[in-house]
Amino acid sequence: MKGNEAICEAAIRAGCRFFFGYPITPQNEIPEYMSKELPKVGGVFLQAESEVAAINMVYGASGAGGRVMTSSSSPGMSLKQEGISYIAGAELPCVIVNMMRGGPGLGSIQPSQADYFQATRGGGNGDYRHIVYAPASIQEMVDLTVEAFDKADIYRIPVLILGDGMLGQMMEAVTFKEIKKQDLPAKDWITDGTKEKREPNIINSLYLEPELLYAHNLKLEKKYNAIVDKEVRFEAVDLEEADVVCVAYGTTSRIVKNAIETLKKENIKVGLIRPITLWPFPEKAFDQINTNVKGILTVEMSMGQMIDDVKIASNGRWKTSFYGKSGGLVPTPAGVIDSIKKILGEEI
Amino acid sequence: MMGSVVYAKTKALTDVEFHYCPGCTHGVIHKILGEVLVELDILGNAIGVIPVGCSALAYKYLNCDIHQAAHGRAPAVATGVKRVRPDNVVFTYQGDGDLASIGTAEIIHAAHRGEKITTIFVNNAIYGMTGGQMAPTTLVGQKSTTSPEGRNESVCGKPLKVSEMIATIDGARFVERVSVHSPAEIRKAKRAITKAFQYQLEGKGFSIVEILSTCPTNWGMKPVDALNWVKESLIPYFPLGNFRDDINGGVRK
Questions:
Q1: Which ipTM value was assigned to this complex?
Q2: Contacts of residue A80 in chain B, CB cutoff 8 Å?
């Protein structure tokens, strides 16, 4: 199944019944699939007049209690940032998909990982965070999408699925597992009319009094700390034995795995940290790295963004270097191998 | 002798004191909006979406479920709410900066889709909350903090006539401009708001009431002078009346 379609099928099976979006390549199969399939299950698909409107429709739909999703690609994601900040501030659950393409500006329509900063730092204003999942296969994208809706509800937080044009467009075999019903918190905060029997429910991110906004920020921080404690996900490969450790996520991690297999034949031991959550970033994975490692190589389909988090996690313990390509060009296994050999050569 | 109650504050308003300036007519508009919600018996079913601007704090005053929206985005937020809760009564309450400037795309397309929501559009020809800057509805020659010599038509164009524009959109089924500068006009405004909500209750599509309102503080006028200025300066440019009433005879102007 094509990645963009698989993510929709997973969302519908996870109970998503509302979708608001705007066309942009390379994610158009998502609104197209939703427009065809959501009405069949009694859901609502609406093509908004812009990404700005779409994310604000999500804000309204989520506040009114709907299980809701939107999707876009890089330039469109920039437009959604205002809404994401409000959604985070008002503590609303939703799932957002970004099938990244090249940038900055209109960039290209080819795959890219150049929205890492935007995804993990918050492209919108204010002190906020949201979960970012970075699947590396269509199966993982399906599984994480199902989970994303529950995590969004549990923490009342937006969850971003960060894919790229490659993951969206390629086809892989995928299994839709039976979905276990989670015990989710009751939504007693939604707007569905007071019936004049309860106090009004207010969906809001405005706190004009400094003490109240600070208290709200502390409350959010507590939630974010709980997510850092409980929701970090990563895959670690051969960190105890490795001479060099690579860090890569999503599509790029598959290229790195390919390079690692090739180097094994030359008796060069390379480990891999593959963050599955980009926020919270798997800093604790780095504690598993053996002390004799010669260097950490970050590989990205960008000019180098996640490397900032790798440096923070490394905390000066190892030398860090970067290999990547951008603009729609994809890092090659040969390029990864050259970079790894350079690290070893410098040290020998 | 026992007295009898001839007037009571509507239960659609909370007991929180308004922050609005003396002479500002937001309070009157809140009151008649609240009275309509009670008279149509939809208060408990209502979900409001409020804007950025002077009425950003209306969630403290209106006694119903409320979403506070980003600047200009209330019609999009209301769309999301209404699509999830089609049986609720959903309204937006927006000022001229919010609706006629930063939120033009959202209001036009909510009307264009025939979104079954009601918009209360408060036009006082100025940015109030931010301190009196020029609005898209500021009159030519009208002074503001960003048009200190008066609005210059050759630089900024003429004020935007929102009701006339929205009345051209087929999804908009009820469009009326009213004022609240006198008791008689307030009664007419209340009738228009009632009709607008009736359109929504009957599932007839988008409805909007534009209400000319005062801003004595930023206009630099005494409250009574401000009421007169609505009558003598605003209304000649923004004529009152119905622009669309599809059930009762279609487009009139």
A1: 0.96
A2: none
